[in-house]
């Protein structure tokens, strides 16, 4: 049987182009990762595909819930504790680490256009959701809420897990955060709160410990009158910078430090009685 050498040459050129494209893509992502050492590029494994509709236009939306060991697992939670959490006043207090990918256009089984989102969670937590329907419903609800908040969309809560499809489209790399934000712990309760319409810069002071000699800690005391709960606070620490936002539009603070700190060993605590946020940061020796 004779073969068409021109076709073979064309296929080889296509493979070479794909390899070159992949190499350039990974090289570019590597450069981005070097510029932002607090993140890394991962290629998640497929998990399950959830079908729902957007509101109000009722367009098909598919949520690919993927899995990767690079995403940290959430704190351990039993089924009984999850039930108590869902019945509480604030079920969002339990955080599930996840990476929310950009929307991408795909074709459904009827060759019609649709939108797909990729959500990546920890692989062990994914297996737990596969075994327990309650955790499955919970992680889907959290994924929907995360996508809605990030991309300003609204998704129907009537959904269906596709049986014969683990992923819609093609799996792409995702850039995930490797350094976690410090969690904020609460102390004694208080109920006073106000909600001005524009964010303002809060009063704060920086304390160096010890006051003499080589500094070991940098302590920030931030006064946040009107903030009733740490759940309305977003705190992000860099090596020489702190960004704090109190929602909704209550306070905003963006300041640089005279010393380099280690964000991973830093801790934050919000006292609801005094309404003071204390951020204790470990100073990196110079």
Please describe what this structure looks like.
With 286 residues, the chain is an alpha+beta fold. Helices cover 23% and strands 34% of the residues. Strands 2, 3, 4, 5, 6 and 7 form a 6-stranded mixed β-sheet that branches. It has a 5-stranded mixed β-sheet with strand order 9-15-16-11-10, with no helix packed on it. Strand 15 and strand 16 (276-283) form a beta hairpin. Helix 3 crosses helix 4. The chain is elongated. 19% of the residues are buried. The model is unreliable at 1-11, 28-36 and 188-197 (pLDDT under 50).
Gap between N and C termini, in Å? 73 Å
- Strand coverage percent: 25-35%
Count of DSSP H/I helices = 4
Number of strands: 16
On the 0 to 100 scale, the average pLDDT is 78
Q: What is Rg?
A: 24 Å
Q: List the uncertain runs.
A: 1-11, 28-36, 188-197
The assigned structural class equals: alpha+beta
Main sheet specs: 6 strands, mixed
Order of helices and strands: HEEEHEEEHHEEEEEEEEEE
> Share of helix among residues?
10-25%
Anisotropy-based shape? elongated
Q: What is this structure, in a nutshell?
A:
It is built from 4 helices and 16 strands. The protein has 286 residues and is α+β, with helices and mostly antiparallel strands.
Topology:
Elements: H1 5-35, E1 39-42, E2 45-53, E3 60-68, H2 79-86, E4 99-100, E5 104-107, E6 113-122, H3 123-131, H4 133-151, E7 160-161, E8 174-177, E9 184-186, E10 204-209, E11 217-223, E12 233-237, E13 241-246, E14 251-256, E15 261-271, E16 276-283
Parallel strand pairs: 3-6, 9-15
Antiparallel strand pairs: 1-8, 2-3, 2-7, 4-6, 5-6, 10-11, 11-16, 12-13, 13-14, 15-16
Helix pairs in contact: 3-4
